[in-house]
Amino acid sequence: MDRTPTRGHAALLSCACILSAISGTVLAAPDQTTLIQPDKPIGTTDLEDGGDLAESRIAQMFTYQGRLRQNGQLANGNYNINFGLYANAIGGGALANSGVIVVSVSQGVFTVDLPFGTNLFDGSNRWLQLTVNGSVLTPRQKINPTPFSFTSDQIEWPMFGSYNGQMMSLANTSGTGTAPALFVRSDSTTGAANAFLAEISNTAPGCFSAAVRGVNNGESGCGIGVWGSHEGNGYGIYGSTVDGYAVVGQNTEENGYLFYGFQPSAFVVLGNDFYGGIYASISGANRDGGRIINGTTGTDVTFANRDSQGVFAVSSTGSSYDSNAVRGVQSTPGNNDTPAIYGINNDSDFWGIGVRGDGKYQGVYGVADGDESASYYGVRGFADSGTGGTGYGIYGSTSGSGTRWAGYFAGNANVTGTLSKGAGSFKIDHPLDPYNMYLYHSFVESPEMMNIYNGQARIDANGTATVQMPDYFQALNRDFRYQLTPIGAPMPNLYIAHEMTEQGVFVIAGGVPGAKVSWQITGVREDAFANANRIPVEEWKSGDAVGKLLHPESFGRGPSEGIDASREASEARKLGN
């Protein structure tokens, strides 16, 4: 190509150039550069951690070969040439200058090494401008990248570039040894430092895109795809996510392990999260040997799939109160009812147990440790009766030859619904011998939902007495019945002179002036709850209760004829007992 001097040089100069790599490893196309390492002898290696580690470094110099013409003829002799590196084809300051180099030209051909550092080549466009004997040749020549030789011992860092496709392929072809195909190291003590960082920059990558992926093509049972380790008490492998799965495990073999862990300490901690710190499932046939999670410690802790158990945990680590086979901790602050342990059984209706506890002392133990002015529940139960079943929020039963309490409340008991019972009484310390005896009184039973009120009235000079009931009496009761008993003297003419008024007053007459009368009045409840929940006096038994007794022992019959025993037998059949 012809170059026209711009500084008034008398001779007409032109230059055609060829850029090539030194040592003959790569021959570049015209108007291109090849960068290799000049600092160390080609082919040398560094040894690190006992292995051969050959690393390639981009050169700090590249070879420029050109053809120079003067007045249309091939140039010969020495010429003063300055090489300038620019970021633009026209204008702008030079990024670097070689300075004036005396170049020997023979038959128009010359070759020169240009000392431009690799930090100037970051993947951006670059142009070369030649000034020959003071004359600037135009236009500037664009420098295009060409393949370069990976024959030197180290890559010079930092190295920047953008590539379309695979940038580098490294392979350790030795069939023995433990030397890695690639070794990276960071000596930084700064937090969150990385020896190796890979990133998918697109915010919407394809499904199952991976920033780092490890593949082991071995077919034995001891291969590892990705191995993470930590010498201190940190994390061997750490995963985090905003709204997904921090760690996902997949096993394509039905009888393989989804997670397998071994540690020689006393306990294994599974994470806590609303959706599960570790979520594991096995689909397909139920195999006795297939394990969702199997971990062993020095003191026998196992997580395994055994028949119908998705997770099976056994602990024999100690006898302290805090020893747990499985322990869940939920420490999320704020107003939420997120459970520490959540059990779900999706079996069809009338089958399935969400959470079951078996214990030699306590089957299930619930504690609510409240510290504010609110309601707290040690154990809370709820049951949906469905479209026609019977729901039991809490159901308790007991057996054995000792004292039996299906339910025992050490404190007040409140029932907001209807209370149905076989019998009832109060039990108090006997007022005459409170330290050694109890006193029982039975409840008053009635076929109606009734309230009983009583008291004493003194007869006035007219032989009458007026009794005022509480202000809620009329709103709570209806259908009143009266009883009068004279005290101190016979009163054969004693009677109710006026029944209960709307103001809750009734009048007694026919008494002896100054004498006392004991009165009793009953009323049938008519409050809103009683009106909506009348207790049936008689009711036919249905379902499993037909032919069974609530209290078979009272009839001289065996426990097998009991309604509760029948229900418990049904539960036992469901559990396989």
Structure summary:
The chain has 577 residues and is mainly beta.
Q: What is the molecular shape?
A: elongated
Q: How far apart are the termini?
A: 98 Å
User: Roughly how many Å is the radius of gyration?
Assistant: 48 Å
Oligomeric state as shown: single chain
Explain this structure:
The chain is mainly beta and 577 residues long. The protein has 3 helices and 24 strands. Strands 2, 7, 8, 10, 11 and 12 form a 6-stranded mixed beta sheet that branches. Strands 1, 5, 6 and 9 form a 4-stranded antiparallel beta sheet that branches. Strand 22 and strand 23 form a beta hairpin. It is elongated, with a radius of gyration of 48 Å. The termini are far apart. The relative contact order is 0.06.
Give the helices and strands, then pairings.
Elements: E1 13-20, E2 32-33, E3 46-48, E4 51-53, E5 62-70, E6 73-74, E7 77-86, E8 96-105, E9 109-114, E10 126-132, E11 135-136, E12 141-145, E13 257-262, E14 291-296, E15 302-306, E16 309-314, E17 425-429, E18 438-442, E19 450-458, E20 465-468, H1 473-476, E21 477-487, E22 495-498, E23 505-509, E24 516-525, H2 528-532, H3 563-574
Parallel strand pairs: 2-12, 13-14
Antiparallel strand pairs: 1-5, 3-4, 5-6, 5-9, 7-8, 7-10, 10-11, 10-12, 15-16, 17-18, 19-24, 20-23, 21-24, 22-23
List keywords for this structure.
mainly beta; 4% helix; elongated; disordered N terminus
